[in-house]
Amino acid sequence: MSKPLPISGSESFEASDDQATDGSSLSDRARPLPRISIQAFCESSELAEAIQAASEDRRLSKAHITIQMGGGAAAIAHYQESPTPNLIILESHAPHAQLVAELEELAHSCDPGTKVVIIGKANDVVLYRDLMRRGISEYLVGPVSPFELMECLSGLYNNPESDPVGQVFAFIGAKGGVGSSTICHNVAWTLSEVLSANMVIADMDLAFGTTGLDFNQDPIQGIADALQNPDRLDEVLLDRLLTTCSKHLSIFAAPVVLDRDYEMSPEGCETVIDVVRQNVPFVAVDLPHAWAPWTKRLLLQADEIVITAMPDLANLRNAKNIVDLVKQTRKNDAAPHLVLNMANMQKRPEISPKDFEGALDLKTLAVIDFDCENFGQAANNGQMIEEFNAKAKSTQAFRDIAMALAHRKEIKTEKKSAFAPILEKLKLKR
Q1: Domains of the chain by residue range
Q2: What fold is seen in the domain 12-157?
Q3: Predicted confidence (pLDDT) at residue 157 exceeds the cutoff of 50
């Protein structure tokens, strides 16, 4: 009997167009992997290149990946003297009987808990069932793309029956004072209200953050306390440090004091956000307009990125730099979202949305007109725009942004006239 390879055990919405085609968004289909070791044994340079490309993706940034050539024979020789990792990726073009024989020999060296993914060329259901019986975690028919590989590995390490990992939305301004925080707060509040989903806003501008002001809160503790000892942060401490603003919205407020020095490490910031995302479906990260290693890390690790800009030349230049970096670094993710804020200000020369889009090769998600009356009064009251004035023009823009980030589409019901029943009866009589 062969020894099996051990493996470890009031409103309506619909999916948006990108979900309708493939069932989920890119970030939903491939979630971040934990800190695991992965060793790949390839027979073709194409697979080695695909794995290398996948290893550079943000979702695999915590995993330690090594790639070797030689296929099954190389794996058998290697593990006779070395312990097995958390995951083995094995490419084999061998016939059914030879592949099974290689796996039986490899099984003698496998440690309990090791997962094995086989990549072959035969699209054979008999082979697939035989491999599954022997304890193989997954069998893929090559060639595979980097994203197909990430999707497979994500399925192995993210249990669909447990609470899903929350999505992280990063908001950053192309320039200081463009209203990125205002956009972040209003979109987060809208998403929490419209979807009735728990949301946390993490204010990363420790010295000058405005989250507490915008929600009329003055918390004693906040995100600075978590960043001091990120490894101590757990669900209990998180609940104590968060400030509740509404039924579904909480804020991780900034201390906003200048007599303290804030030394923020990329690893510490990422750890804090990871703990938050394990406890709520959505996390909005309000990034300051200050470029630092931790800012870059949080921006590039987010599931969705929103860049807020005003329609002038300096904003266009900065936005293009951010967009180019994001597209170059996040090749398997959707493009960032662009929001033009404070547009159509009187007597101010502006770059048109069309020209802005052309320069960035990016479609504008929303254009929000300059509206000092509604925005100013709402800020003074500690309210969101829709709370202060539901009829404000920007209210629908915030809903559009929120639905785009959540990959939902709002189904609007037509309001019927009070005379509608009478008119229907007249039509029937005719």
Answers
A1: 12-157, 167-411
A2: Rossmann fold (3.40.50)
A3: yes
